[in-house]
Specification:
- This protein is of the alpha/beta class.
- Strand 7 and strand 8 form a beta hairpin.
- Helix 4 packs parallel to helix 5.
- The longest helix has 16 residues.
- It is globular and about 55 Å long.
Length: about 220
Amino acid sequence: KRGSIFGFLGPNGSGKTTLLKCLAGVKEPSFGQVLVGTDPIDLRLTEVGYVPQTDVLHNRLTVRETLMYTARLRLPSDTSREECAGEAEEGLAELRLTEHAETFVEKLSGGQRKRLSCGVELIGKPSTVLLDEPTSGLDPPLERHLMSTLRRLSDGGRGIVVVTHATSSLALCDTVAVMGVGGNLLFSGSPRECLEHFSVGNYDEIYGAAELVTPASPPP
């Protein structure tokens, strides 16, 4: 829901990326359906931003150009150039990238690229943003900074869904879901309740505990 962060974690092979693609409308679920409110996801795609694991950015554009071109591509055709520029500037400010506005994408640090990828998906002001491993490859300080950025965006009224291995920042999430191998949901609740559920003392231990869980057999 808006104003909250929902974090998915689990070992490799548990289906986190597949699930996120289904939620984003990128992949068709094998059964069931994804709804935004009461509507199928394909009718509400503009309300959902999706940041995949691999950055989809053009290295030879500046940060401002990236956001400007995104606005021109995604906003209604009658949107003026000035309105597109306003969206770009708003994105720069929201992700705290204004000082890097004229920097080429290829010159950005890993953390700055991730923030720009988020900024691209914020064009058009989607109510929900889905991110797949946004902290992958970042050192601990940058990881914490990016997760804090997501917390700030959430507090501003957006719903954030994030697949993450950033266990040191799990406390920033409102809800955590743990998935087991084969896509089985092992737990969903608050970060503190997650520790209690798996009887562990810190978030790093959740992965090992999750791998030991034998999923219940499906009903006949």
